[in-house]
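User: Quick sanity check before I run a bigger batch. Here is a single chain. Can you write out its predicted 3D structure?
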Amino acid sequence: MHALGPNAKQLADKIADVLRDWEANRRGGPSPVIRVYPAGTPDDQIPADRIIDKVHSRISLSWPSA
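Assistant: Done. Predicted structure follows.
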């Protein structure tokens, strides 16, 4: 995992946690959906299992139902 910026390690750690969860619990099912929204987008407008907040964006990660 490679990330840049002042909080690179935290972002890389969060993404790695999501990938470990996918490997352990979801592999073989539908692929994850990754979307990026502007920072400040309210939670209720982001359909996601997990949200990672960055300075200028919010990254959502979700898995469709099998």
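Helices lie at 8-26.

User: Great, the batch can go ahead then.
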